[in-house]
């Protein structure tokens, strides 16, 4: 097998094991350290998806630095793509379907395993059908390839993944300057925090007093009820009986009134607590902004705010004029330095090294950003019953995210390094994905700007 070098295979296998171990560590220690069910099959699926994703990024870097034989790189590219599609279209969706059916019939022990398996297969078939129908509204279909070809599967994965990347990028491009720049920070004094804390404590004290009054009324009502039952011959027509009945009705009205007031006080305490937490967070942000690290992130925020405006304008131009860049930004920058500024540089040499650096930064930042967002999302919606399903869904989104990152990353690479990605991924409409990214990025960025503006105005009113 001339196309398979066993030394190269051993190198990639070792890196895969390291990536898998890294994913296992991240899963257990960082992302899901409070994971309640601890199902090892789910952990294996998540770590395998992360490992295959990192392997594809690794192969891009190997292509740039010309490491491993060309035939070996092709083999590992195809192997990684097929393994990723197997995870995204079979293993993860089937596991999600299985855990979903298992949760639905958790209280019904009479349901046989065979029935659960059949229902799982039905749900998985529904997923496959829905996944296939996603591609119908988009110009990604090609009559050259069969329905089971790699091009058809990657094209549909790319739609979901590019949409996810564009949404996160649009929000991040707007949110990062907002959270890091001192211009958008609201100054909070110690008096503001003390007043908020005092109001919160007073509300809690009122709640405690009302709960004590409610407990006293309930205790008195139970005592009166016991006395009435213990009386052998109650005189219902006596004056004292009338007084007791009147007092009982009055205490019932007081109880209802106190319960209503207690409910409103608890709602108010929740709002006050959230306001207090927001004030403490703003105070910490303001204190941190005065440090050297905070000032660095402040200037970085100005840079990203300019980049955000530039990206929004560029996306608008690309959408209006149906334009997609044909030259990667690195080569374009080097040609500008040579042709217009007169700097004598070796374009091919520096293009390779700068591409290696830029791709490495993109890989690290995108992986870190995605893992952080996955962690926040998991803790926001997970529960003891749904955690297995959510982890599998996050692994599914993560795989689609990384595959789509390679689709988009292709444009940031010089032409000689794009060739292998183009050949491996097949006859895809790369221009469509970049245009789709621009559309979703623009929508996400504009919605984020509106949302942040409204929340900022609301915060100013509350203060």
UniProtKB/TrEMBL annotation:
Q: Which ranges carry the Golgi pH regulator conserved domain?
A: 147-214
> Which species is the source of this protein?
Sarcoptes scabiei
Membrane topology annotation: Multi-pass membrane protein
Keywords linked to the UniProt accession: Membrane, Transmembrane, Transmembrane helix
Q: Which family does it belong to?
A: Belongs to the Golgi pH regulator (TC 1.A.38) family.
* Compartment(s) where it occurs, according to its Swiss-Prot or TrEMBL record: Membrane
Q: Is Transmembrane a UniProt keyword of this protein?
A: yes
Question: What GO cellular component entries does it have?
Answer: Golgi cisterna membrane
What reaction does this enzyme carry out catalytically? bromide(in) = bromide(out); fluoride(in) = fluoride(out); iodide(out) = iodide(in)
The portions of this protein that span the membrane are: 6-28, 40-61, 81-105, 117-134, 154-176, 299-321, 356-379, 391-413, 433-454
Q: Does the keyword NAD apply?
A: no
| GO-annotated biological processes | intracellular pH reduction
Domain of life, source organism: Eukaryota
Quote the protein name from its UniProt record: Golgi pH regulator
Please list the GO terms describing molecular function: voltage-gated monoatomic anion channel activity
The UniProt record lists the Abscisic acid G-protein coupled receptor-like domain at 288-456
């Amino acid at each position: 097998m001339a196309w398979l070098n066993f030394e190269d295979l051993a190198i990639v296998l070792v890196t895969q094991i390291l990536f898998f171990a890294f994913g296992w560590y991240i899963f257990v220690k960082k992302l899901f350290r409070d994971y309640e069910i601890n199902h090892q099959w789910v952990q294996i699926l998540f770590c395998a998806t992360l490992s295959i994703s990192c392997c594809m990024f690794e192969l891009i870097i190997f292509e740039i630095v010309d490491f491993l034989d060309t035939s070996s790189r092709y083999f590992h590219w195809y192997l990684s793509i097929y393994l990723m599609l197997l995870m995204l279209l079979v293993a993860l969706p089937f596991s999600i379907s299985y855990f979903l059916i298992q949760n639905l019939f958790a209280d019904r022990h009479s349901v046989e395993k065979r029935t659960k398996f059949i229902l799982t297969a039905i749900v998985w078939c529904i997923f496959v059908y829905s996944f296939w129908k996603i591609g119908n509204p988009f110009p990604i279909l090609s009559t050259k390839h069969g329905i089971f070809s790699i091009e058809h599967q990657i094209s549909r994965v790319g739609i979901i993944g590019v949409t996810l990347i564009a949404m996160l990028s649009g929000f991040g491009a707007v949110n990062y300057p907002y959270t890091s720049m001192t211009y958008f920070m609201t100054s909070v004094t110690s008096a503001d925090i003390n007043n908020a804390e005092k109001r919160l404590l007073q509300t809690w004290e009122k709640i405690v007093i009302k709960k004590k009054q409610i407990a006293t009324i309930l205790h008195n009502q139970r005592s009166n009820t016991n006395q009435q039952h213990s009386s052998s011959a109650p005189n219902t027509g006596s004056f004292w009986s009338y007084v007791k009945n009147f007092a009982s009705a009055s205490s019932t009205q007081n109880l209802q009134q106190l319960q209503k007031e207690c409910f409103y006080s608890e709602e108010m305490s929740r709002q006050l607590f959230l306001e207090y937490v927001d004030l403490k967070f703003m105070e910490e942000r303001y204190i941190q902004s005065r440090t050297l690290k905070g000032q660095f992130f402040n200037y970085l925020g100005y840079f990203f705010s300019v980049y955000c405006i530039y990206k929004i304008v560029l996306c608008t131009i690309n959408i209006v004029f149906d334009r997609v860049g044909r030259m990667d930004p690195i080569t374009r920058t080097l040609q500008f330095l040579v042709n217009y500024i007169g700097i004598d540089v070796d374009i091919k040499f520096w293009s390779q090294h700068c591409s290696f650096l830029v791709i490495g930064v993109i890989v690290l930042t995108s992986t870190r950003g995605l893992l952080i967002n996955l962690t926040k999302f998991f803790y926001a919606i997970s529960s003891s019953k749904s955690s297995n399903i959510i982890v599998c869904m996050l692994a599914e989104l993560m795989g689609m995210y990384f595959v789509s990152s390679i689709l988009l990353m292709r444009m940031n690479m010089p032409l000689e390094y794009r060739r292998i990605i183009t050949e491996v991924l097949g006859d895809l409409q790369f221009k469509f994905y970049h245009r789709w990214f621009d559309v979703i990025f623009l929508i996400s960025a504009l919605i984020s700007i509106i949302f942040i503006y409204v929340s900022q105005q609301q915060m100013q009113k509350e203060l």
